[in-house]
UniProtKB/TrEMBL annotation:
This is Protein kinase domain-containing protein. PROSITE patterns: PROTEIN_KINASE_ATP (PS00107), PROTEIN_KINASE_DOM (PS50011), PROTEIN_KINASE_ST (PS00108). It comes from Streptomyces fructofermentans. Belongs to the leucine-binding protein family. It holds the Pfam family Peripla_BP_6.
Amino acid sequence: MEPLRSSDPARIADHRLLGRLGAGGMGVVYLARTPGGALVALKVLLSEYAEEPDFRERFRREVEVARRVDSRWAVALVDADPEAGAPWLATAFVPGPSLAEAVSAYGPLSERGVRLLGARLAEALGEVHRAGLVHRDLKPGNVLIAHDGPRLIDFGIARAPDDLTLTATGMVVGTPGYLSPEQAGGRDGDGIGPASDVFSLGCVLAFAATGRAPFGGGEVDALLYRAVHDPADLDAVPAGLLQLLDRCLDKDPARRPDAAELVRELTADGGDRDGEEPEAAPRHGEVSDAAAPRDDEASGWLPEPVTRLIAERSAAALALPDIEHTLAPSDTPSASGPAEPDTRETSGAAEPQDSRPPGRRRFLLLAGGAVALAAGGGGAWWAAARDGGSGGAGAGAASSRRPVHTVALHGDLSGPQRRIGRAQERGLRVAVAEFNARRDIPFTVKVRAVDDGGDPAASARVAAQLTDDPAVLAVVGPTTDDTGQAALATYDAGLLPVVGVSPGTTALSIQGFRSFLLARMPDAVLPIYVSNYLRGSARTSKVGIVVDRPAGNYGTNLASSLSNVLNSVQYPSVPEVVSAMRRDFGGAVDSVLSAGADSVFFAGLPDRGALIATTLRERAFEGVRISGPALLDDQFLTLAQEGAEGWVMVAPVVDATRKPEARKFAAAYREHFKEAPPVYAAEAYDVTGMLLDALAGLPSKGRTRQGLLTAVRTGKYEGITKTFAFEKNGMMVLDGTGGFLWRVDQGRFVYDGPAPLTV
């Protein structure tokens, strides 16, 4: 839980707010006390969505469904007002983690634990189905864990099988990776029945038993395809559960068991005693109280660390002060002083002193509360950018009377991708210095650079800190896909514009974040240029595609996209997958070469790219060797040595020293930092210029986060690297530019200009 923010209300409909439990793209969930003093989780729809009829209708539906489902294993609805200006609903507060959090942190459940989990979720689904409804979004994140069993939550997209409102044929509703084949295939127009929930429950139980999703991870399209066509990964499922989960995950809905049959089979061996009902779980209108009677059947169903966590959170919840002692938003201590320009901050600083009562402070810590980010050492920067000063003829008294706005850099400045994060920080600072040096500017800009060290958890905390700083009007970053995924929901809740220049996954854009703009060509599109290069100027006849498992989603996305592109034009390719357990690429190389491949595409990272490069050199392979943007890294050159020579990379970045439009920037960068600009510096310079240009074009009263976001989303900016314009989902308008060729020549990377758009 996080403390309330200054923008949060103190009360909602006589419910006193105590803190934030979470925030998403459409609303905020608070911990609150009812007028009677009970704890509830109070969900509020953001006002901008409340004005949209479709979103308000979905919220009404969630309230209606929660009222109709009467199960001790579904979280109880306490109160709601879907017609309020900001619609809200309050449910029983469960002081435990989600199943996703518990398994990710402490590992899979035992077979007995999976049986109890499955039986009680099946009971809840049975009540949902008896009410004539289908949940449609059963996943580990929608299952809360209490000491006596699970609680099913989130009925936002539940509806009757024959209810086709709010959807259309071909629209996928739910969470990829846990969708049934009929959902993944976009067959919502044909009606999705209770068997779909059973399939999703099978996925959830497989996750609980093994610690991984049964259809893996990666891009949405890949997950949907696997759900429809591929068998589930049940290798680590206990033998006693394997047959039942296999039936749940049958592609044919008619062959899956129903909820009642699941309850019987799961309780037959080691689960609940059939026909006995524990007394601990609350029914509708009651609050999930930490002091509820113990359910002996549920004793020992969880790993000991999870049980201890639930007990600690329950005790801390009981120790929360009464309403009159609750901390008001204005009393929240500041985690740090005012945002200073040109400071580099880290997420590893000690917590500030906290004057709150011990019980409340301990609860905030146990519930994952706010962690303060203290300002650290920054390093010296040139005078023009320091303290937001103009550094030009317009400096002096006139500049001191101008408003001051802050642009932040959220990046990995000390971790694995610090080379990219620091390049973006410096590119941003050059843009700000140039802006502040102009005579005609209506405001002065300060820079705030914050380091997440490449850690997703730290990234989430950085996002909360920057969102809470009203002076920050825009953010450039984060650096990686994972840190972006961890931060964007928080930025979106504060409608803080965020522009990413190095994350490459399309998943960040298709999740519906309103404030995120992806200002580069995504990884999944780059293989179009790879294909054009291989089939055109390289004149290859067959492509060997080597997918390296340690590259995760990045490698899978590149390889699957290239395979799809080549298949679409009936161009032959030979796929080969290398396990993370292997460091010998000889087998993979020999396999693709013996199949007649005269070019090799490597979908992987620099360290292991050096291994395959060395192997190809040992085989005296003289064909084209090509890869994606990850290999544009000095580590590849250092490790591969002579093996790197001649490799080609397709990347979304330019060499500012060789692109005519970027040479002025390159000269300024070299003047200030005594080196040529590295990759991603010019791109960060561009997007910062785009943000400042849009902000300067707004009237003084319109210089807000929302005003800036609207201006950038609807505008067009001619940068030194490319033209920036955005689709409604925040992805760049793909106008044919954005992919660039690089090659290794005499031990260094050489920029070869735009990648071919056509063969």
